[in-house]
Every structure is written in C-alpha cells, then in structure tokens.
C-alpha cells in the first residue's frame, strides 16, 4: 500500500507557541536528517548517473520534470549548468508544470494535466539518447507521471526523485531515487526537507555527470563562463597556479581565449609542438 510519508503529521506540535530559537533549532534538527536520507540513496543515484553519461556523450540531454517547488528546483539546477561548466543551455533542461509563469506564481491545475508533460518533451524533439527525470516529493504528480510513462514507452531512460517509497511516479522510472526524509516540520510543506534533499541530489547528478564529461580539471571549473569580475579573477588565478605565469599575463590569456581550459591548452600547444620537433 502506498503511503505518503512526506505528508504525515509533523513530529512537532503547537508551533505558534514556540520561541524563534526553538523553531530554528527544531528545523535544524530535521534538516540534519536530510543528508542521511540522501546518503542511503547513493546507489540509485550512481545507477542513474552511469546510464546518463554514455547517452550524453552521444548527444543526449537531461530533462527535469516537476511542479511547484520540485519544478523550480529542476529549472534552477538546469540554469546553473551553462555558467558553471560552460555547456550550452540545451543539454540540461528544466520543465515546470505551467511554464515559466509557474516559477513565480502558481498556475491552477497545471500539475494535474497528465498529457502536457509529454507534449512539451515532443516539442523539444526528445529521442532515446535523452533522459527524463521526474521530481515530486509526493510521487503522484500527473504532469510528471504522464511524461515519464510516455518516455518509457518510447525507450527513453527515466529516473525520479521522490520522498515516498513505492510511489506511482517510481513505477514509471527505470531508476527510482527514493529519499525518505520523513514528515516535514510544517505538516506537508515539502519545500522544506524534501526540497533540500532534491537540491542535494540534483547537485550530485549534474556535477558528477559534468565531471565524467570532462568539464572539470583537478577540482576546478575550468570551463565556467566569465560573466563577472569575480569569475574572471578566479579563472586568472587558476591559470597562474596551473602555468606559473604572473597575474597580468594570465588574465590577458584568459580574456583572449574565453575559458581557463582553452587558455591553458592554447598556451601549452606551441610548446608541445616545439618539443616534438626537437
């Protein structure tokens, strides 16, 4: 029998009678359970990532599907891939029930449309090289379930992130990531522990995928976009450390080539050629 653990009554009562300090300490106590729940799900996260990587090497994409908080977190994670790893915004795509309007305002009944998710995927020419990852704390969102069901029917890899075991959404997933964080501090408020755990797992999925795709060197974001002074400074210091150049030369090299990786490769290329000739 499917039980929504995420919507069970809070372990705390009379919240309005508590002091601010008590509320903060109680929330922190609950938040500490999230990392442990995510840790237990690592085998499933690993299984999903190891199937995503070869698909993306062949030109595949990741589609996140969600509604409300879950949808917003998917869009957030997807939007951070281009600036962090220098990848085009077309490789990790976040879709939210109700469209971009739903990022700031609820869209009535959008998550209840079981057909719309798949329609949005077909509009983006989804193929069997792609991966669809449903995100829903409850595991019962029709918008997500409908998209995942059709994706599987078309031989497309599906995964999901949920806070409940044996959910209808998990039944449509090739790899179900079940992160059981327990009841929320405010009963049913899945923007809290469930949302925190979803963000952690999304970080884990895309960061590990990007590392496997060669977008990180050592432990550095060598492909990050140089979109502000802070990032130009960070990239310059990476080049200083990597090549032993002074700061001015390193910055000029970075700005000329547009990324740390391209700058380092360009600097080393003529030297490698010269050594071969000798």
Automatic annotation (TrEMBL):
Q: Where is the SIS domain?
A: 52-215
Keywords, in A-Z order: Carbohydrate metabolism, Lyase
Please give the catalytic activity noted in the UniProt record: N-acetyl-D-muramate 6-phosphate + H2O = N-acetyl-D-glucosamine 6-phosphate + (R)-lactate
Pathway the protein acts in:
Amino-sugar metabolism; N-acetylmuramate degradation
Per its UniProt entry, which superkingdom is the organism in?
Bacteria
Give GO terms for biological process: amino sugar catabolic process; N-acetylmuramic acid catabolic process; peptidoglycan turnover
**Would the keyword Transmembrane helix be found if you checked this record's keyword annotation?**
no
Q: Specify the enzyme's EC class, one word.
A: lyase
- GO MF entries: carbohydrate derivative binding; carbon-oxygen lyase activity; ether hydrolase activity
UniProt xrefs under CDD domains: SIS_Etherase
E.C. numbers = 4.2.1.126
Q: Which residues are responsible for catalysis?
A: 80 (proton donor), 111
UniProt cross-references to Gene3D superfamilies, sorted A to Z = Glucose-6-phosphate isomerase like protein, domain 1
Q: Which InterPro entries match?
A: Etherase_MurQ (IPR005488), Glucokinase_regulatory_CS (IPR005486), MURQ/GCKR (IPR040190), SIS_dom (IPR001347), SIS_dom_sf (IPR046348)
State whether it acts alone or in a complex, and with which partners, per the record: Homodimer.
Question: Extra info from the record?
Answer: A lyase-type mechanism (elimination/hydration) is suggested for the cleavage of the lactyl ether bond of MurNAc 6-phosphate, with the formation of an alpha,beta-unsaturated aldehyde intermediate with (E)-stereochemistry, followed by the syn addition of water to give product.
Q: Which family does it belong to?
A: Belongs to the GCKR-like family. MurNAc-6-P etherase subfamily.
Q: Which PANTHER family match?
A: GLUCOKINASE REGULATORY PROTEIN (PTHR10088)
Q: What does this protein do?
A: Specifically catalyzes the cleavage of the D-lactyl ether substituent of MurNAc 6-phosphate, producing GlcNAc 6-phosphate and D-lactate.
The protein in question is named N-acetylmuramic acid 6-phosphate etherase
- Please name the source species: Bacteroides muris
Instruction: Identify the coding gene.
Output: murQ
